[in-house]
Design brief:
671 residues, alpha/beta, Phosphorylase Kinase, domain 1, Rossmann fold, Dimethylsulfoxide Reductase, domain 2, 4 domains, six-stranded mixed sheet, six-stranded mixed β-barrel, 25 helices, 28% helix, globular, binds ligand MGD, binds molybdenum atom
Length: 671
């Protein structure tokens, strides 16, 4: 058989959702390149996906089911057949359900794959079983809440809109790591003379490509946005015609709220010099069509939703929405295109069941009131590494009486605690339908290669489990992945119906069409942008303080271009480029007698994590940064960044607060 080239989609949790060309030879992926026909990603790939074949055919791939023979966490297993593994799970679950009730089973899944079928494959199964529900608020629900509180269901601007902007603000977004294809529009805008500003808590790679970088104290961006609007109002730079026609509540906001945020006070809250706040506000107001690309980092604080609400008011005050190239892109929401209820099947729940927040799995596994969690089923997620309060999560996973099943591509730290490990397909081995949260393309990916070893997709494993538990013959569970995809495409809603469905079915990337005047159609109850939102307990945005901790240094666990959360840790070539280090300002290092290159411990009451210290002026005093969420084996002290983070939630939407963390840093032996 000769070389074949097949279209696919990057399955990872990233706004870019790139179009791929998979070069297949003899049933193996030998090379992966970017699809030049993809309207947004245009043939370019990130440093991780250019060698996706190394992940797919990694010698570390799990190829057979495994059954634990050693202590939990040690990773000692014997191989088993699928029949034995499924039988063991079903028998144990039947026993647990009899003794404790079905809520004693807790599924845990997140975004290992973003494909709509495989990502949600367990939802109908666990609903049918009556298991505990997982509230999956790990990523950016606080950001989404803040956007919606002002803009309702308004469509996000197309990312390429930014190409026509004359001032782009990359606000809390590490685009060089997490959104590289957005930089296409940034380059185009720049070629036409646009300026680029970056606002972050340290000078990351993205800040280094900006014309101006503003270092903001962690968790204080809400104060910065309010301070900018104070200056804009005080200088008479607000777009009064736009405000009068399209915005609810501005006069009262300007009279009652904005006077509380003069530059001197905002300087005290954010650490940004007052002149810089004034400069930024004036540049933003003077721009013809300013465009903000808003990342998620700043929403992962106790004040995250309110912070985003304040920032989202900025383009309303300057009337940026009405200008070609202007606006604010937080996330693209294309949920309306597909009828997800056809997959998630809430209606299968036999009775109301309790909900456990994914950020509080650590507590749920160790100290839950009510029926204890006796079985934990993990797929598309690596909770031992990515969830906050790692020591609590590991304590839970160590429980001898907890029956843990992990369906995975690799023997992750979580899988090492499993009683039964099941091998998972990679995205090149199963069918799925993809959409994105950074652009408007949708795409269907057919398998490019057969499963590696005995790997099975999420959907196929839940079919086997449904069979073993006696409901596999029910019409819903008796379907193939392809039939589930069909159920989403056969009755397209009004939005999807306008897309090129034939091209979609053929596996080509297809853009959901946007109405010509969509930027000015505000999907709020009032039809206006709601700076005043009467449905909120706080009707106007204001500054709230983050949670904080008693320790002196803010601790940022930011993305690296070479890993994606804990994914790609199976790749030595990439791990080598993402060292486990802690960046610290020279003044903070000197005050602690610490020197570049030595081993240090970051500590707080939740944990202790070892790093190699890198002393750099790129990190402001009072902040320390570690890029990447590493596997425990790659971490010198056997704990990684989430041993320091907390189970505390955001002000709205019960979301994660990964950045709302403080630590002290001490010299440590390199144990
Ligand atoms: N290479 C790579 N790509 C990824 C990921 C990855 O881990 N690696 N993760 C994927 C996922 S799951 C997601 S959700 C997206 C996230 O994509 P982004 O939104 O770009 O990334 P975040 O991690 O949310 O945070 C971005 C930046 O926020 C900064 N930040 C933290 N606190 C604050 C603050 O208080 N104010 C300001 N202004 N900035 C702050 C951090 O320093 C970081 O540089 O990226 C996806 N893409
Ligand atoms: N400290 C700190 N912690 C963070 C973050 C941070 O910035 N800082 N980021 C947070 C964010 S934004 C997110 S979204 C979460 C991400 O959390 P997760 O979604 O858990 O992300 P990954 O670490 O990528 O782990 C996904 C796992 O799924 C597996 N997988 C991939 N495809 C499949 C499949 O088809 N089937 C099955 N069964 N398994 C599959 C992969 O091998 C991988 O081990 O992490 C969060 N954790
Ligand atoms: Mo995320």
């Amino acid at each position: 058989m000769g070389l074949e080239i097949k279209r696919s989609v990057c399955p990872y949790d990233c706004p870019d959702a790139c179009g791929l060309l998979v070069h297949v030879d003899g049933g193996r992926a030998v090379k992966v390149s970017g699809d030049p026909d993809h309207p947004f990603t245009r043939g370019a790939l990130c440093p991780k996906m250019v060698n996706y074949e190394r992940t797919v055919h990694s010698p570390r791939r799990l190829t057979r089911p495994l059954i634990r023979i050693g202590p939990k966490g040690r990773g000692e297993f014997r191989p088993a057949t699928w029949e034995e593994a499924i039988e063991r799970i079903a028998t144990r679950w039947q026993d647990i359900i009899r003794r404790w009730g079905s809520e004693a089973i807790l599924p845990c899944s997140y975004a290992g794959t973003m494909g709509l079928v495989q990502r949600h494959a367990g939802f109908p199964f666990f609903h049918r079983l009556g298991a505990s529900r997982l509230e999956r608020t790990l990523c950016s629900p606080a950001k989404d809440y803040g956007w919606k509180a002002v803009m309702g269901s308004t469509l996000a601007p197309h990312p390429d809109e930014a190409a026509a902007s004359d001032l782009i603000i990359l606000w809390g977004v590490s685009a060089v790591a997490t959104n590289i294809h957005f930089l296409h529009a940034v380059r185009q805008a720049r070629a036409a003379g646009a300026k680029v500003w970056a606002i972050n808590t340290y000078a990351d790679r993205t800040a280094r490509l900006a014309d101006r970088f503003i270092a903001v104290r962690p968790g204080s961006d809400g104060a910065l946005a309010l301070g900018m609007m104070h200056v804009i109002a005080a200088d008479g730079l607000a777009d009064t015609a736009f405000l009068a026609a399209h915005v609810q509540g501005y006069p009262e906001f300007a009279a009652k709220i904005l006077p509380e945020y003069p530059p001197e006070k905002v300087n005290a809250l954010t650490g940004i010099p007052a002149e810089e706040i004034v400069d930024l506000a004036r540049a933003y107001a003077a721009a013809r069509a300013p465009f903000i690309r808003l990342g998620s980092g700043l929403s992962r604080y106790g004040n995250g939703a309110m912070t985003v609400r304040a920032i989202v008011c900025l383009p309303a005050v300057t009337g940026a929405w009405a200008k070609a190239g202007g606006g604010l892109l937080a996330s693209v929401a294309t949920g309306g295109a597909f009828d997800m209820a056809r997959i998630t099947r809430e209606d299968l729940l036999p009775r109301p069941v309790r909900t456990i927040n994914i950020n509080q799995v650590g507590s749920a596994l160790t100290t839950l009131d009510g029926p204890p969690v006796m079985s934990f089923y993990v797929y598309s997620n690596n909770p031992a590494v990515v969830l906050p309060d790692q020591n609590a999560v590991l304590k839970g996973l160590s429980r001898e009486d907890l029956f843990t099943v992990v369906h995975e591509r690799f023997l992750t730290d979580t899988a090492k605690y499993a009683d039964v490990v099941l091998p998972a397909t990679s995205s090149l081995e199963h069918t799925d339908l993809y959409r994105s949260y950074g652009h408007y393309c949708v795409q269907l990916a057919h398998p490019a290669i057969p499963p590696v070893g005995e790997a099975k997709s999420n959907w196929d494993v839940f079919r086997l489990l449904a069979d073993a538990l006696g409901f596999g013959s029910e019409p819903f569970f008796n379907r193939t992945t392809e039939e589930v995809v069909d159920s989403l495409l056969e009755a397209p809603g009004p939005w999807l119906a306008k897309a090129d469905l034939a091209a979609l079915r053929a596996g080509r990337p297809v853009e959901l069409p946007l109405p010509p005047d969509y930027k000015m159609q505000f999907g709020t109850p009032s039809g206006k942008i709601e700076i005043l939102n009467p449905a909120e307990a706080e009707p106007f945005p204001r500054y709230l303080a983050p949670h904080g901790d008693p320790e002196p240094l803010w601790f940022m666990s930011a993305p690296t271009p070479y890993l994606l959360n804990s994914s790609f840790s199976e790749r030595p070539d990439l791990v080598a480029k993402a060292p486990v280090e802690l960046m610290m300002n020279p003044a903070d290092a000197a005050a602690r007698n610490l020197t570049d290159g030595q081993t240090v411990a970051a500590v707080n009451r939740r944990g202790r994590v070892l790093f190699r210290l890198r002393v750099t002026p790129g990190v402001p005093a009072g902040v320390v940064v570690s890029e990447g969420v590493h596997w425990l084996d790659d971490s010198p002290g056997g704990r990684s960044v989430n041993a320091l983070t907390a189970q505390r939630l955001t002000d709205r939407a019960a979301a994660s607060t990964f950045y709302d963390v403080k630590v002290e840093v001490l010299a440590a032996a390199g144990d």
